[in-house]
Amino acid sequence: MEAVVFVFSLIDCCALIFLSVYFIITLSDLECDYINARSCCSKLNKWVVPELIGHTIVTVLMLISLHWFIFLLNLPVATWNIYRMILALIND
User: Fold this and answer.
1) C-alpha span between 36 and 49 (Å, rounded)
2) N or C terminus: which one in the chain shows less Cβ crowding within 10 Å?
3) How many other CB atoms are found less than 10 A from the CB of residue 12?
4) Stated pTM of the model
């Protein structure tokens, strides 16, 4: 069980790093005026919920598997993403 949790966590973290790089490249294109703000937002907004799900799944898996230190490292990021999503839902 422990090996499966860490393999899934590794795959998920790699996907989240790839997603962060994609965000940076897209925002760089916006800064250089290669794309307009509307298309930038439409490209990035569809990846916000998968990012939230990815962070939350890893955090919950570390809590369930009793890896407290890794859970505590992931908790602020997951909390921030949930807070961001709640604010977005309230403002809409």
Assistant:
1) 22
2) C
3) 16
4) 0.81
For 22, residues 6+ apart whose C-beta sits below 8 A from its C-beta are: 47
Which of 89, 19, 90, 4 is CA-nearest to residue 54?
19
What does the alpha-carbon distance between residue 64 and residue 56 come to, in Å, rounded to a whole number? 12
Torsion of CA 70, 73, 77, 78, to 10 degrees: 40
Report the number of distinct structural domains present in the chain: 1
Q: Contacts for 88-92 with beta carbons within 8 Å, 24 or more apart?
A: 88/48
pLDDT digits (tens, 9 = 90+) for 41-73: 999 989 989 999 999 999 999 999 999 999 999
Residue environment code for 23-58, b if the CB has 16+ CB neighbours within 10 A, otherwise e = beebeeebeeeebeeeebeebbeeeeeebbebbbeb
**Which stretches of the chain are DSSP H helices?**
2-31, 37-45, 48-64, 68-91
Range of the domain at 4: 1-91
